[in-house]
Specification:
The chain is mainly α and 424 residues long. Among the domains are: 148 residues, no CATH class; 120 residues. The chain contains 24 helices and no strands. The chain starts with a helix and ends with a helix.
Length: 424
């Protein structure tokens, strides 16, 4: 063992009692820039992989690349080659932070607008305040050390920017990061949480869009629950959460009789029909009181809700069938070689009107839905008419072609007869 390692071990033994101490605020508030960070230089030579790993991650760490040395968090003197000085408890050195001290230590910089302005002026400085209000922060304040802290999500060393695709909080990675805890059914059972939320989310249309289409705007855990102020949305706030991405649907729901009824029953708005984590792509077949139809969760055949659902379902089925028929007819004449740009425009209008009609479902108002399906029928009918005209044109052209071929054939026969007569 080298003399440097021995000296480091002696100092570590003296400061072991400081392992759970409060963060070294004086060091964090004034991180130093040195020609060489002796902490990383020394730790890279250590045989203990656990002590060597932080130094190996330093070059990729956003704090280290900004010139904030190990002393910025751990205290001590990162400019000294003497381990006794570098890890001097009198200079605020803390070798390992207690879990309850981590958020406060990170917040000592990240909560100071003036300090953060020097490094990352666009980062909000209310993360610590949000964390204290979160389910995690409240539980931690009560002494629960199984709760997530800053390093649980961002890492301790080798911290990457949130927009770095390698970061554990990058949109395509954050589900797995949350899943480290929330996918552990045994751990979640302590808090009355099922622990299957991650598995359910991976069945959802949101997750499919995120991983298959690489759409980084797709909702992830933090989109609905928040990041630093993470908390499950309550009954009264579910529609607000969903409405951030689906504002039109929320506006239509607010026009429906369901809004007051759900509030009176203390039922969540969107979640009652669409679920929360395992959100599937909705289809028109959901509407009704039959088996596996969502309206049947509250309504039964013959009541006002079932009657409205039946009217809405019928209007949508008719509109969909009309579009499908017109689309098939237009496609057939296209394959025959006809240009159908005008019909394509009408079909697009029909599809857009159908989407609006499907949004109007949230009003639970058959008249509003039927108004939009009338537009679907009109546009798809126009496309069908154009396709019919194209079919007539095809028949006319084919008739003319057959007549021309017949005339040509007769001319050839007459020519052959004439040539043979001349030969004789």
């Amino acid at each position: 063992m080298t003399s440097r390692l021995l000296a480091a071990a002696v100092v570590l033994a003296h400061v072991a009692a400081a392992a759970l101490a409060a963060p070294p605020a004086n060091a964090v508030r004034a991180p130093g820039k040195h020609a060489e960070d002796t902490c990383t230089a020394c730790h890279l030579t250590l045989d203990d992989a656990r002590l060597r790993a932080p130094a190996q991650l330093a070059n990729s760490d956003i704090h280290h690349t900004q010139g904030i040395t190990c002393a910025g968090c751990h205290g001590g003197d990162a400019g000294s080659e003497d381990p006794a000085v570098a890890m001097n408890a009198a200079k605020g050195f803390v070798g390992k932070f207690g879990r309850r001290a981590i958020a406060e230590m990170c917040g000592s910089c990240h909560s100071d607008p003036t300090f953060m302005l020097r490094y990352a002026p666009n980062i909000p400085t209310d993360q610590l305040a949000q964390y204290r209000t979160s389910k995690h922060g409240v539980a931690l304040a009560k002494g629960d050390t199984n709760i997530a802290v800053c390093s649980s999500c961002h890492g301790a060393h080798g911290v990457l920017q949130v927009n770095d695709a390698r970061s554990p909080v990058y949109p395509t990675r954050i589900v797995e990061t949350c899943g480290h805890c929330h996918g552990d059914a045994a751990l979640m059972a302590r808090y009355g949480i099922k622990g299957n939320e991650i598995a359910e989310y991976k069945q959802s249309v949101h997750y499919a869009v995120l991983v298959k289409k690489n759409d980084l705007s797709a909702p992830t855990c933090k989109s609905c629950h928040g990041a630093h102020g993470a908390t499950p949305p309550g009954v009264s706030s579910v529609s607000n959460v969903c409405g951030t991405c689906h504002p039109t649907q929320r506006e239509r729901f607010d026009l429906s009789p369901h809004k007051d009824a759900f509030a009176a029953l203390q039922e969540p708005a969107c979640e009652s029909c669409h679920s929360n984590h395992a959100i599937l792509h909705p289809t028109d077949g959901w509407i009704g009181v039959g088996e596996k139809q969502v309206c049947g969760n509250c309504h039964s055949a013959g009541d006002a809700g079932a009657t409205a659902a039946s009217a809405i379902s019928g209007a949508l089925e008719k509109a969909t069938a009309t579009i499908t028929g017109a689309q098939g007819r237009v496609d057939r004449v296209k394959r025959a070689g006809m240009l159908m740009d005008d019909a394509d425009v009408k079909l697009e209008e029909a599809h857009q009107s159908l989407v609006v009609a499907q949004v109007e479902i949230h009003t639970v108002n058959p008249a509003r839905v039927e108004d939009q399906t009338k537009a679907v029928l009109a546009a798809s009918g126009a496309a069908d008419t154009l396709a019919a005209k194209a079919e007539a044109e095809i028949r006319y052209r084919r008739t003319g072609l057959f007549i021309s071929l017949g005339v040509i054939a007769l001319a050839l026969v007459a020519l052959i007869i004439k040539i043979r007569a001349m030969e004789r």
